[in-house]
Design goal:
Strand content of chain B: over 45%
Helix content of chain B: under 10%
Shape of chain B: globular
Shape of chain A: globular
Strand content of chain A: over 45%
Number of helices of chain B: 0
Number of helices of chain A: 0
Distance between the termini of chain A: 41 Å
Order of helices and strands of chain B: EEEEEEEEEEE
Largest interface: A-B, 26 and 19 residues
Radius of gyration of chain A: 13 Å
Structural class of chain A: mainly beta
Number of strands of chain A: 11
Largest sheet of chain A: 6 strands, mixed
Oligomer: heterodimer
Helix content of chain A: under 10%
Chain lengths: 111, 114
Amino acid sequence: KNQVEQSPQSLIILEGKNCTLQCNYTVSPFSNLRWYKQDTGRGPVSLTIMTFSENTKSNGRYTATLDADTKQSSLHITASQLSDSASYICVVSSNDYKLSFGAGTTVTVRA
Amino acid sequence: NAGVTQTPKFQVLKTGQSMTLQCAQDMNHEYMSWYRQDPGMGLRLIHYSVGAGITDQGEVPNGYNVSRSTTEDFPLRLLSAAPSQTSVYFCASSPSGGAFGEQFFGPGTRLTVL
């Protein structure tokens, strides 16, 4: 069964600090991996997409990495801001049009 | 563009009642889907549609029906509500199939079944 595991489940960081979220998956055959940001009470919004041949993709202060060999991805948040407080969801697509969702990591940024 | 809209935002039902969650998109996307989100779990696919007149079951379809008479609208019907259907429901659309297209999500409907 295709699975996506995210860690940690939640974390608290001080404003201005960096943090890294992890995503491990067993989805096969792999098509692409997206990171979504979900603010409280709202739907998820796509941050980045990575295909098999991409190692790194940035979107402002968000940088995603992908190691397709070990089936791991990370999302790094640089110089965190209060607006980064949200849940971050890893979504892996397989070539048969199936999406597998992680449970998400809840990030709380404190002033 | 309004994107993906969902109504209502909140709903409380009694066990056995039926209702329809509305979803509409104005982006002319072919692919639409319904998910439920429960604490500690990833989003789970209920039903999806690859175009008007075509629907199919997802991972957790029991107790739900859908129809797709137009490209824009994709309502989700709860036939006889049960407490296990208490959840947050998200509708999403995509310009192409789920494997390759970015999912655009609506704001969600929080449903409580007593």
